[in-house]
Structures are given as structure tokens and as C-alpha cells.
């Protein structure tokens, strides 16, 4: 087993280096949280928890972890706390908690205090801040030669130095393993012997590592849309690319069988490829602003974004509108600076501390791009995986929380759930993680599409709800049938909550 550093006892007091399980006597030590009505929503309660910036130096610099709570709606049925994380990295758990009453079922809400926290480096918890002008100078993420590749590395180092300067010492300690330790300190501050947890997307990486480090402190844990933190850069690129191309293929099949699709009856892959080729030549403009050119990367990213719901009808209409939009010669209005000097940008800081992806030179980079294009010829690889990988080019080799195969030894039965056709956390990732923790986890497959499985159907909701309430996993191999994605008209007539704003990726992320 890896050497484990665990936080025990009082949050502001002791950090012990141990092998094994945190002593149960620590469960009710330490300060309690001082709750007060949240500024954004007085029906919820908010608090902060002072924690070490660096868990290896518990008496050093500190930061305030922002926390929000919605108490169980039926105190007589209260089971405990449900910690939640919406992914990202960069998603706000506080915002997720504020929206919890529109996301989780009444059965869950009546039994659990729903607790969300902004992970270190995110929003209200000592956020990673970077200068807007430096962010705006980002060079192409598709360098054509070694000179441009070196320039990208130099830029990444410049940006990291700027963000470190704007953010302070926590910038170098925003890895997910530090978040895991924060989470257990929060458990102590809540006065809970065990927690329940629902993590979505990148939140599953946090959940899995919590199970690895503090498995004995879990009552129930749901990992929805699973990140596989054991991949090297090549495997990561390959699986991400195949996953994204699968979502494109599913969109094409839907358009072929659905008469309301704006591209029905056409060769959709050809229409798409022709559109990207025109965009590469600078011939595509924004239908809402014909003075603004739209490049192929923007089109691909828009499609990838719409696969999350999925909103295939919107994508088909967008493709049609991009095809028809005519450029105008009117000069575009100059951009107006807002006066904002910094912007929150935690994604690269977290990702590059969680993964040792350091592409060394343009030759290696070009080989990865070529492999991605072969596996995803229409989507040109995974735009998200590409952004994540190129963001680490040129950064130091040292990584706080490098990827590894999971070693979960003392956790209870865990629940994993994943869509078969998820555009970003592919089912292959879920099955590989399940192989690593098969003895302590059950994987449920939603046969349909999109990112996030919980709110897709009655079956997926019941699977998760029943597990959280009873802490008993369903039978191995459980599958939930797909539900046909809704159209815009259907969503308007009978809206369903699938991706709260706190869960929708902030800029980009999982």
C-alpha cells in the first residue's frame, strides 16, 4: 500500500503520518462550523472552515474552505450528511448545494443534510486567480512545429508564474489529494463518524481517492460519470478521443432516424466535415454576428458541449445555421475592457497537479494528435483532453498527485454509475476503474447518452436513491434502459433538471 498521510484529530491541531485507518476517537474532535444564512440563498446555511494550505505543514499558512448546507427536510428520517461535488475541476460545491433541492429527489433530501464545499482553489475557497491579459495571450494549442511547441511551453510557465503570484501559496497545493484531506477535515468539523458522498465527473476522482485514503469513514459513496485516474497520456488521449467520436456517431444515427432533425435526410458526417473545412479556411461566421469568424475549434467545442445533455436538435440546427450564415463587410466593434484585472482559472492548476502529462517535444505531440484524429476523424480527437494535455506542456515534472491504480482496502460497498454513451467520461473509463475496485464497488450502466446518469430516468434515480438510503448496492450487472433525448419543444413543455448550472462545466472541464 502507498504511504498514506492522513489528517486526524482537530482540524487546527494535529496532522499524523500513519499507515492504516484513522483512529475512530478522532471523529468528534475539533472545531464545529458556525452556520449562518447564505448570502445567495437564505434558505440554505453557509460557513467556512480554516484549513492548512499544505497538509505537510499543518502549522503553516491557512485558507478558508467555503461550505454550504441544506438540512434534511424530515429530521425524523435523517440518516446523516451527504457531501457533494459537481466536478470540473473548478465546479462549485457550494453552488451545487444551493441547487440541491432542484437536483436530488425528495427521498434523498428528507434524509440527508446535503453539504457542498468549494474545493481549494475554486470560487469562494482561495480561488486560483490569473491576469486577464496573460490569459488572453494564449498561443495556439495546435503548434505546427518545435518552435511553436516551445513557445506554448514558455507561455504555460509564464501563466503559471502569474497565477501563482495572483493567487498565493495555495496555487501549488490545489491537487485532488489535498482536497480529499480537506474533505475528511470537514467530516470531523461536522461531527460525523461517517459520511455519504455523491461525486459527479471529476468529483469521482476525489471520491475514489477518499475511498482509498479514508475508506473506513464512508457509509455510502456514489461515483457518477467516472474519471479513470490510472491512464498515461497516450491511453488518456485514445480513450477520450474514441469516447467523443462515439457521441458524434450517436448524434448522426439520431438524425438519420428523426424527421425533426434539421439535417434529416442528408449525409450528416459529410455536412459536418465540409463545415469544418470551410471554418479552417475562414469561411464560416457567427449567424448572430456575421462580422465574427467562427473557427473549427469553436464548432467542435460547441458540439462537444451539446453532447452533454445531449441537445442533438440544437446541434443540428446550429450546423444548418453555420452553413447558411453569410459574412458581412461591416467592421466589428472594438472590444471593450471591463476593467477586470484577474479571472478565476483553476482548471490547469488542478489538472497539472493531478496528472503527470508532460509531452516533451513536438514529435511526441504530433503523434498524439495523429492518433486522436485516427480514432475520432470527425471530432478531431477530444477537445477537452487536448486542452487539458496541452495546458501542462512545459511545466515542471513534479506532480503532487500523480495518477495510479486504485488501492481501496477498507471502504464499504460503493456505487458507480455511467452512461454507455458519455461524451467525456466514457464507459471504458468506468469499467476500468471498476476492475480496480471490483471487490468493493458495483457498476450500473445507463444505456443512453449524455454526461451525468443520476437524473436520466426513473431507473437511474431509483438505483442511486435506494443505495444512498439503504447503503446496499444493486445486483451486479444492473443496467437502466435508455430514454430518447428530448427536443427543445419537449424540454420547454416539460422541463427536467439534468445539469444544474453548478454541474455544467465552468468554461471547460469534466
UniProtKB/TrEMBL annotation:
Residue ranges constituting the Peptidase S33 tripeptidyl aminopeptidase-like C-terminal domain according to the UniProt record: 389-480
An example Gene Ontology molecular-function term: hydrolase activity
Keywords from the UniProt entry: Hydrolase, Signal
Source organism (scientific name): Actinokineospora auranticolor
Signal peptide: none
Family: Belongs to the peptidase S33 family.
Domain of life: Bacteria
Name of the protein in its database record: Alpha/beta hydrolase family protein
SUPFAM superfamilies in UniProt: alpha/beta-Hydrolases
UniProt cross-references to PANTHER family, sorted A to Z: 2-SUCCINYL-6-HYDROXY-2,4-CYCLOHEXADIENE-1-CARBOXYLATE SYNTHASE, TRIPEPTIDYL AMINOPEPTIDASE
Amino acid at each position: 500500500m502507498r504511504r498514506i498521510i492522513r489528517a486526524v484529530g482537530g482540524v487546527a491541531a494535529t496532522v499524523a503520518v500513519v499507515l492504516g485507518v484513522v483512529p475512530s476517537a478522532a471523529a468528534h474532535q475539533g472545531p464545529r462550523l458556525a452556520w449562518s444564512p447564505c448570502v445567495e440563498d437564505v434558505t440554505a446555511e453557509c460557513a467556512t472552515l480554516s484549513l492548512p494550505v499544505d497538509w505537510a505543514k499543518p502549522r503553516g499558512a491557512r485558507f478558508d474552505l467555503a461550505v454550504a448546507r441544506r438540512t434534511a427536510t424530515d429530521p425524523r428520517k435523517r440518516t446523516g450528511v451527504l457531501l457533494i461535488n459537481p466536478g470540473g475541476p473548478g465546479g462549485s460545491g457550494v453552488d451545487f448545494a444551493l441547487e440541491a433541492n432542484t437536483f436530488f429527489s425528495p427521498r434523498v433530501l428528507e434524509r440527508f443534510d446535503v453539504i457542498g464545499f468549494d474545493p481549494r482553489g475554486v470560487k469562494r475557497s482561495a480561488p486560483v486567480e490569473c491576469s486577464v491579459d496573460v490569459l488572453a495571450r494564449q498561443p495556439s494549442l495546435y503548434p505546427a512545429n518545435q518552435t511553436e511547441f516551445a513557445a506554448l511551453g514558455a507561455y504555460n510557465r509564464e501563466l503559471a508564474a502569474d497565477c501563482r503570484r495572483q493567487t498565493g501559496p495555495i496555487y501549488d497545493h490545489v491537487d485532488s489529494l489535498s482536497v480529499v484531506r480537506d474533505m475528511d477535515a470537514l467530516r470531523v468539523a461536522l461531527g460525523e463518524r461517517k459520511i455519504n458522498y455523491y461525486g459527479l465527473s471529476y468529483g469521482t476522482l476525489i471520491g475514489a481517492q477518499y475511498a482509498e485514503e479514508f475508506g473506513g469513514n464512508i457509509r455510502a459513496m456514489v461515483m457518477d460519470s467516472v474519471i479513470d485516474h490510472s491512464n498515461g497520456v497516450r491511453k488518456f488521449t485514445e480513450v477520450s478521443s474514441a469516447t467523443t467520436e462515439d457521441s458524434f456517431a450517436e448524434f448522426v444515427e439520431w438524425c438519420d432516424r428523426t424527421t425533426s432533425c434539421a439535417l434529416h435526410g442528408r449525409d450528416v458526417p459529410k455536412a459536418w466535415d465540409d463545415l469544418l473545412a470551410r471554418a479552417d479556411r475562414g469561411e464560416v461566421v457567427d449567424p448572430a454576428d456575421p462580422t465574427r469568424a467562427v473557427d473549427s475549434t469553436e464548432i467542435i467545442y460547441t458540439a462537444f458541449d451539446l453532447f452533454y445533455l445531449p441537445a442533438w436538435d440544437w446541434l443540428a440546427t446550429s450546423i444548418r445555421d453555420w452553413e447558411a450564415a453569410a459574412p458581412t463587410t461591416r467592421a466589428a466593434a472594438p472590444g471593450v475592457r471591463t476593467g477586470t484585472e484577474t479571472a478565476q482559472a483553476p482548471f490547469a492548476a488542478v489538472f497539472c497537479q493531478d496528472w503527470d502529462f508532460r509531452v516533451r517535444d513536438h514529435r511526441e505531440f504530433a503523434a498524439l494528435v495523429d492518433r486522436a484524429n485516427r480514432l475520432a476523424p470527425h471530432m478531431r480527437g477530444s477537445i477537452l483532453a487536448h486542452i487539458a494535455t496541452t495546458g501542462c506542456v512545459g511545466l515542471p515534472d513534479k506532480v503532487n498527485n500523480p495518477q495510479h491504480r486504485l488501492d481501496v482496502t477498507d471502504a464499504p460497498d460503493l456505487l458507480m454509475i455511467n452512461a454507455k454513451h458519455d461524451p467525456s467520461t466514457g464507459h471504458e473509463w468506468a469499467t476500468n476503474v471498476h476492475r480496480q475496485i471490483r471487490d468493493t464497488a458495483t457498476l450500473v450502466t445507463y444505456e443512453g447518452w449524455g454526461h451525468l446518469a443520476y437524473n436520466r430516468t426513473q431507473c437511474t434515480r431509483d438505483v442511486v436513491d435506494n443505495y444512498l438510503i439503504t447503503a446496499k448496492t444493486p445486483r451486479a450487472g444492473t443496467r437502466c434502459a435508455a430514454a430518447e433525448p428530448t427536443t427543445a419543444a419537449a424540454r420547454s413543455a416539460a422541463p427536467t433538471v439534468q445539469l444544474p448550472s453548478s454541474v455544467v462545466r465552468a468554461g471547460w472541464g469534466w
